[in-house]
Specification:
451 residues; mainly beta; Tachylectin-2, Chain A; Jelly Rolls; 6-stranded antiparallel β-sheet; 49% strand
């Protein structure tokens, strides 16, 4: 009914991981969020409340009422078991199912993600078999009695750490009549730059079994949804309007999440993103992540509008807006010309900086935060992340959101993304651009302050 509901792991008594409940916020537009006063699901005799998912039961299959919102979550104590709760007031309060748990296994399994499959007329559940590095797929007519149908993932993709927070959905492939299924698999550790990250698999799903596509060598490739250090636990909204697949991730990394220099909050969520599929130059299908369209409403004043600017080895500097602590959005098209590299640097008067380097021949964009501000709270925080640009080695388009303690970089219409935390002692005030071994051009550079 036009309201987005975001539930998240929340400790009501402190800012470290413990006493986990489901906190709850709502929004009419994915931008303005209202925190609901109380946790909607709290710990009980079965354990803490780990991650899960919710869905609208339009046919009253579970017997909780037509259009009830049903939540499935992991109850975590000595073991990890799956429980249900339902809401008959549009998700504002939940009642725990007295028959909990509805699903038990002998080993760690968590973060149930369920959806109604209209093709098979039953519920599908994807459950992370954490220590076995696999996803379990169950089906049910009523969300209470679950039948294991298949397993996916052993020996495939990134296998380090634990597998967590799955999601499974179907999307059209850009520019074609083809549709493919996407299986999100968050893991920790084992990310491309250490710690936690979101990998995904592209394939087919027949209602019982997910089969991943293979590359030209016949192998299942490892693919990453975000090439930054701080993008984890990504899952999508159920029943989003207009067939959208809108996701939000947790913006931190388990390597240092409890130690980030923040008061009193411990971490934030990413900006909302729309997932799409495109076919790369290598013939494989990849996932894109574009900022949700609602985010354009955040723009305030256009503080800079440059149509064309030659870039050489001497840096060209542009002022960033100072209002709202320098929170801003940057849009830039970079044409490297005959240059080998183009460097975009964010900096402040204290000499703190972030360097983003477009390597033309390697077709990569790197993000260096080693001198970004406060970096000494963890040996794992100072880092350089690198993303393929999924481009042709020519022009790249960048859309960069700078917040008080984070930078989210979307490139080539979301074909690559990097999310990284930064903790400058004062806001970044300048953007400077220079090139190496040739002349480049910066075109359509726009900077907006953010409300």
């Amino acid at each position: 009914d036009g309201v987005w509901h975001l539930c998240y792991q929340w400790n009501p008594y402190g800012s470290k991981w413990q006493n986990l409940s489901w906190g709850h916020s709502t929004s009419p537009d994915l931008i303005h969020w209202t925190r609901m006063d109380d946790a909607v699901i709290e710990p009980d005799g079965l354990g803490m409340i780990f991650s899960g998912s919710s869905a609208i039961d339009k046919e009253n299959s579970a017997g909780f009422g037509k259009d009830a919102i049903v939540a499935m979550y992991t109850s975590a104590a000595a073991s990890q078991i799956q429980s249900l709760a339902w809401s008959d007031d549009d998700g504002m309060t939940f009642n725990k199912y007295p028959g909990n748990p509805v699903l038990t296994l002998d080993s760690e399994a968590r973060d149930p993600n369920m959806f109604w499959n209209p093709d098979t007329k039953e519920w599908t559940l994807v459950l992370a078999h954490a220590l076995d590095h696999e996803m379990l797929i169950f089906t049910s007519p009523d969300m209470k009695e679950w039948t294991l149908q298949s397993r996916f993932g052993r020996g495939l993709g990134a296998q380090d750490g634990v597998w967590e927070c799955p999601d499974l959905f179907e999307l059209p492939v850009e520019g074609t009549d083809e549709k493919k299924w996407v299986l999100l698999c968050n893991l920790n550790p084992g990310g491309p730059f250490g710690g936690s990250a979101t990998q995904y698999f592209i394939g087919d799903f027949d209602g019982k079994t997910f089969v991943s596509d293979t590359d030209a060598s016949g192998n299942v490739p490892t693919k990453w949804l975000d090439f930054g250090k701080d993008h984890y636990a990504t899952v999508s909204f159920s029943d989003a309007p207009d067939g959208r697949r809108t996701v939000i991730g947790w913006m931190s990394n388990w390597q240092y999440a409890p130690e980030v220099p923040t008061m009193q909050f411990r971490s934030a969520n990413t900006l909302p993103r729309e997932i799409g599929l495109f076919r790369g130059a290598d013939g494989e299908i990849y996932a894109s992540s574009t900022p949700s369209p609602e985010l354009e409403a955040l723009r305030d004043r256009l503080t800079l509008d440059v149509k064309s600017k030659k870039i050489g080895k001497k840096p060209v500097s542009f002022r960033l807006p100072s209002e709202n602590d320098g929170v801003c959005e940057i849009l830039a098209d970079v044409n490297p010309g005959n240059a080998a590299k183009v460097n975009l640097e964010l900096s402040n008067s204290k000499g703190e900086k972030v360097d983003m380097i477009y390597d033309v021949n390697a077709r990569t964009l790197s993000f260096d935060r080693r001198e970004s501000g406060i970096v000494d709270f963890s040996q794992d925080f100072p880092s350089v992340t690198v993303s393929p640009t999924f481009g042709d080695g020519k022009k790249i388009s960048l859309r960069i959101f700078i917040d008080r303690s984070s930078i989210e970089v979307f490139g080539n219409n979301g074909r690559f993304v990097m999310t990284n935390l930064v903790f400058p002692n004062e806001p970044y005030s300048a953007l400077s651009v220079k090139s190496e071994n040739g002349t480049a051009k910066l075109s359509d550079l726009r900077i907006y302050s953010i409300k």
